[in-house]
Amino acid sequence: MKKVQLSNRSLLELPSEVIWDILCRLPIKTCLGCKLVCQDWYDIITSPSFAALRGSYCSPRATLMLKCRFPNGRLNFLMLELDKESSNVDQMGAFSVGADHMIKFKSKFGVPNGKLFVVNVCNGLVCLKSDKRWDCYYVCNFLTSQFLTVKQSRPRFHYLYKYVLGSCPMDSTTTQVRLCGGSENPYICGLTPARGEVSHGNHCKGSYLMTHQYKLLRILKTGIQHVAEILTLGSEEWRRIDNAPKSSYNFQAFLNGSYHWYDNQAGECNIWAFHFGIEKFFRIPTPDEFKKQKHTQR
């Protein structure tokens, strides 16, 4: 048998942009297996920004998330990635999914009644919550098996109305959060100044600087007004930022650090936006033709 002579050239000689581009296009399970190739690939795949970038490459793919509950309340999640270009589809529209398109995420949190729903997905991070109004939020990165539990404060005489996870790009003045951990011990190390040193903790498998800052926005209702509160991931403080406009808050489109939604209260058509960087609400001017016509949401 003819021996194949391996080249001594290192994978590191490939431009980093090429490596990122290749890894982002792989099936989800194959991608996770590439963490074992070398330390540099491990750092890429487990970095918080990789999930967001990979999502932008996955337009022909759809992801299903299934969950199963154990008697102790723990949940396991099964992620099925459906690729319309490579999956086998029969005449009835049923998919045949291979093992490379399936991963299991073992959660470290328990929900007593097992009822969780997806709040939204932001840059690859999935926000989950139970159906109990004042229960915790769970922010998960299924590619790295990391998660964060966010507890809620409960102001008196307030009703929790709407909530959503958002993000904004980091800058030199922004407090940065470092996500640490792996499948055995996922946790948040805490807050670190932008140019400061990082304490990695005792059991941290990896610490990666996040390119985006993630925040949870919640809208509370009192008898007379809407109130907006926000929490930066890594902190424990819900900060009141503004008296929020009276709106339906059907968060629909996330673009350039802002969530946008259409509102038709009292017959008036408005487009609202909330920017997670400056933490402000905006009303976006609408064309006259838009105001005159009746528009329905799809």
UniProtKB/TrEMBL annotation:
Transmembrane segments: none annotated. It comes from Opuntia streptacantha (Prickly pear cactus). PROSITE patterns: FBOX (PS50181). InterPro entries: F-box-assoc_dom_typ1, F-box-like_dom_sf, F-box_dom, SCF_F-box_component. This is F-box domain-containing protein. Residues 8-53 form the F-box domain. Signal peptide: none annotated.
